[in-house]
Design goal:
The protein is an alpha+beta fold. The chain is about 30% helix and about 15% strand. It has 2 helices and 2 strands. Strands 1-2 form a two-stranded parallel sheet. Pfam families: E1_dh.
């Protein structure tokens, strides 16, 4: 199920402050950005400033199972992530 249906705000990272923690978003396809967000979250926790809710969005190239068909994927996005993000 898409996370868009069961929540009023699909940007999960924005829910962090409601639970008393920082919330941050990162492009999960950018490993260096994810590393930066993780380092900042670790530093924040070590300072005693509490946990961090980090949402790292990625593109799923394949389905979870045979019931989750690859034909539903957007070929343009696949091309973008396979060929353009690598270069």
């Amino acid at each position: 199920m898409s996370h868009l249906r069961p929540t009023s705000d699909p940007e999960i990272w924005k829910k962090g402050p409601a639970f008393g923690m920082a919330g941050v978003h990162a492009d999960g396809m950018d490993v260096l950005k994810v590393r930066e967000v993780a380092k900042e979250a670790i530093e924040r926790a070590r300072r005693g400033d509490g946990p961090t809710l980090a949402e790292c969005e990625t593109y799923r190239f394949r389905g979870h199972s045979l019931a989750d068909l690859d034909e539903l994927s957007d070929p343009g996005k696949q091309f973008h992530y396979v060929f353009l993000m690598v270069s």
